[in-house]
Structure prediction request, 323 residues.
Amino acid sequence: MKNRAVITLAVVAAVVINVLVFADPFQWMGGQKEEKAGAALQYGTGVKVIPHSEQFTKLMAELKEESVEVTLQKLNADAMQFGLMGTMFHNDVDNIFPEAERIKIYARDINAVLANIRVLKAYEDLQKVDKKTAAALLSKHIRENLVSLRQTFQFPIGMIERGEHKGDTIAGSLIGRYDPNVLGHVPLDHPPTKIGRRYAILSYILIASLLELEEVRPAVEEVIAFAREEYELFCSLDVKEAPAFMSVLLTESLYNPSLLLTAARCDPTWNPEKRKLLDENNLVNCNVASWRTALPEHNVKNMLTIRYYVGITDAEFNEFFGK
Prediction:
């Protein structure tokens, strides 16, 4: 049996007005709910939320009444747009280009997915329905969001064709120009942002892998194909000419070898022999606290088992899926 790292995570989230605040999933290691429950959560903007405050209680009541369909739909509106979901504008953009640094960014995506209380709720809710229904729901949402991402992908392509991608000051304007609603939480009656859709797809494919939903594989294959297109565009550029543009292009993309290889676990028959060749230390098991753990009537012992890859390289990605 493979040696696997076991990490205990507990997650709590809270709302201030219409902004979903994510807890650091590693902040609650050890499951010390009572000790941590009164601690204020803080996002980079300085906004603080007290768990079990009025706003938090309102969110939990909302979640308890939410159907699985609504929960899945809201995942593309929940992304904190900067810092957590990969749209990280580095002061030294050169540092994101070596593969070792990119792998760190990919890990942040996984941590952010697991830090969202709605992702955990969706996972638990889908466990209660038959696999065919769960697969149909996830496939539907993956494809709906992927269609939009393919459309917005034409914008950076156009910038490159016009030579507008060069320089080192474009990072801040790139997403804003083709996704003007990128900042802040987006309500359901408002079109989701590009980053929100990206975040949702990463969440959907992780859930599909956890539930081993073979019928989601075609949709996952579509995600992988598009992620490769994004990465190929990134690799076609010269970092000396367009470092900021490339930084945004990469961190906004769906290309995340670790998550995409994790997604392949949706179908146990997907290259099982190649899977055996992967480094056993790259497969992590996590015991993650149920979203209901944040409710006063629930105990932290109610845990979910989460499994995913970390540290997957481009070479391992290509070996598994083929070039």
User: Anything to note?
Assistant: The longest strand covers residues 283-289.
